[in-house]
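Reply to dn_fold:

You asked what the input looked like. This is it:
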Amino acid sequence: MQITSEKYLTYEQAAGLLCMSTGGLRNRLCRGEPVPPSIKVGRRRLFPESELHRWLAQQGGLVCQGEH
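and this is what came back:
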């Protein structure tokens, strides 16, 4: 088993970095629109922070300034 120091973000944290509401991020996922990679852990959906930043860079987006 490999142990990693990856940080996982909640919907709220990921939405904050993407400059959108939590509901907006959930809606995009439900509609099948492009969203950062995520995993399900039980009933929770978590976003690996490194993957979120990689996905955001591929989209040509910027992280919100001053929020985190």
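The chain has a mean pLDDT of 87.
Hope that clears it up.
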